[in-house]
Design goal:
This protein starts with a strand and ends in a 19-residue tail after the last strand. The chain contains 1 helix and 15 strands. It has one domain: Jelly Rolls (Sandwich). Strand 10 and strand 11 form a beta hairpin. Strands 4-13-6-7-8-9-15 form a 7-stranded antiparallel beta sheet. A 6-stranded antiparallel beta sheet has the order 2-14-5-10-11-12. By secondary structure, it is mainly beta. Keywords: Apoplast, Cell wall, Cell wall biogenesis/degradation, Disulfide bond, Glycoprotein, Glycosidase, Hydrolase, Secreted, Signal, Transferase.
């Protein structure tokens, strides 16, 4: 992801209070700002390129981040609702939740990724076991010195481990802000760009509430949290039944051998 279409609304910059509720929408006719990402930049017509979003005032080095989101209902094809942590610069770190829209009646794709020192390419994708447009659901990132755990409604779906001892970079030195955005990505988001955004359905609206950032280390809390046996079983259930892409299984993409961390997943 090399470029994200993002229009920051200054009135939404402060989201640090738990219980805050806000809505993010995108519609034609707004010219977006641009931010550094890894995926090639889209080049839509100016009246079909827009976005909105918000970011935290504070930067965080480790923490447990919760956000409740209700995704764009109906025909959301071509849109991406993103919720992620990121630092800045060419060697930035990043932890991604991205929700790839689809035509009415088809499920969303939940796209996850981890960047360390500017390198990503660690995508895992899932379908969800509920309708994420019907109600709010909680999406959690637990980031401590040993693990990055992605959770949906307290169910773990992915655990990226610190394997620096094996030569795998891990985000641990760069404080990151929390971002969320809703943007047009119809050159790739739905069926690889085959299905375009239907702008007659605009505005597209996602809703957010109950943001919480727990960044105070505790010996019995998120700072030392890892998956126990029950957590591993839940994650295996999700990955067996709902995971649709795992970079660690993509031999065509990595003909010279899978990334090192895949041997320890």
């Amino acid at each position: 992801m090399a470029m994200r279409y993002l229009l920051i609304a200054s009135s939404l910059l402060a989201i640090a209070a738990a219980g805050t509720s806000t809505r993010s929408s995108t519609s034609p006719g707004r010219r977006p700002c641009q931010g550094p990402r890894e995926r090639p930049a889209p080049h839509p017509h100016p009246r079909q390129a827009s976005g909105s979003g918000f970011q935290s005032k504070n930067e965080y080095l480790f923490g447990k981040i919760d956000m409740q989101i209700k995704l764009v209902p109906g025909n959301s094809a071509g849109t991406v609702t993103a919720y992620y942590l990121s630092s800045q610069g060419p060697t930035h770190d990043e932890i991604d939740f991205e929700f790839l829209g689809n035509v009415s009646g088809d499920p969303y794709t939940l796209h996850t990724n981890v960047f360390a020192q500017g390198k990503g390419n660690r995508e895992m994708q899932f379908k969800l076991w509920f309708d994420p447009t019907a109600d709010f659901h909680t999406y959690t990132i637990i980031w401590n010195p040993s693990h990055i755990i992605f959770m949906v409604d307290r169910t773990p779906i992915r655990d990226f481990k610190n394997l620096e001892s094996r030569g795998v970079a891990f985000p641990k030195n760069q404080p990151m802000r929390i971002y969320s955005s809703l943007w047009n990505a119809d050159d790739w988001a739905t069926r690889g760009g085959l299905v375009k955004t239907d702008w007659s359905q605009a505005p597209f609206t996602a809703s957010y509430r109950s943001f919480r950032a727990d960044t105070v280390p505790s010996s019995s809390g998120w700072w030392s949290q890892e998956l126990d046996t029950t957590g591993h079983e839940k994650m295996k259930w999700v990955q067996k039944n709902y995971m649709i892409y795992n970079y660690c299984s993509d031999l065509k993409r990595f003909p010279q051998g899978l990334p090192t961390e895949c041997s320890f997943a």
